[in-house]
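Lab notes, practical 5.
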Amino acid sequence: MNNLFSGIITPIVTPFNDDPEQTINYKATDHLIDHLVNNGVNGIFALGSNGEFTMLSTRERLAFSKHVIKYVNHRVPVYIGTGACNTNEAIYLAQESEKIGADALSVITPYFFKLRDKDIYNYYRDIANSVKIPIILYNIPANTQNNISSEVLDKLAQIPNIMGIKDSSGKLDNINAYLDIVKKHDNLHFLIGSDSKISYAYTHGASGAIAGTSNLLVKQVVALNSALRAGDKKMAKKLQEDLNPLRDVMHKAPVPVVLKRAVTLANIANVGDARRPEVAPDDELVKEINQMLAHYNLI
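Output from the prediction step:
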């Protein structure tokens, strides 16, 4: 199995300073990366949904990516989110990320406008043809309005450097359809992006997980990966269910309002709050976050 597509990849939150512009906090970024790598994650993914990529300018995205790649320093692979609403911007981000040393790219579908299959195919084809490094398609239709059909995936899999798909739809029909396509292509891998479905996806052929919960619960998520690989169903069931208290609280605010405050309160790294217009957790939500952290013995 290609080690680029195996195990737990953390889509890191983007730390911000507590200043009027909420500038990027690079010191906190380093603390978070060290914590994750030291606890056994298989990859670091910058600028996914948890990384608030839509809240950063193009200049900030590239500066943050460059810092992460340099600081990780080949300890684990680094994946950079380079998707955009238009193909030209996505190609620019992809090419610049390749130049600065990204190991692979995660490319979300365009968002806002609802696209046809041929639009989605052309978008990914053009991006893939603009770079040489591996590309992971990123499907999260609840946020983008655009679902990558299994037919489009089957066609895109014929492009050599399209090597994976991350699905965060949470829908078993989608997961199963993608896994059927993956089985047809030796060079294509499935990564689960819905943390509640890690166990299901692994037992049906997923090679890894891009798990937002691992920002906070890295030991549990890495242990879940190990239990699933070892076929320890009882332990895997316990570890999978133990992600639910975090997920329940996370659903009470936009991504990643709860997760960032939890990472800070757990003294993992002072990652700051989500960028405006997302509002910091109120006292009631902070109380729930603290109760959740106490459940995990993180405070």
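Observations recorded by the TA: DSSP finds 13 helices and eight strands in the chain. The longest strand covers residues 162-167.
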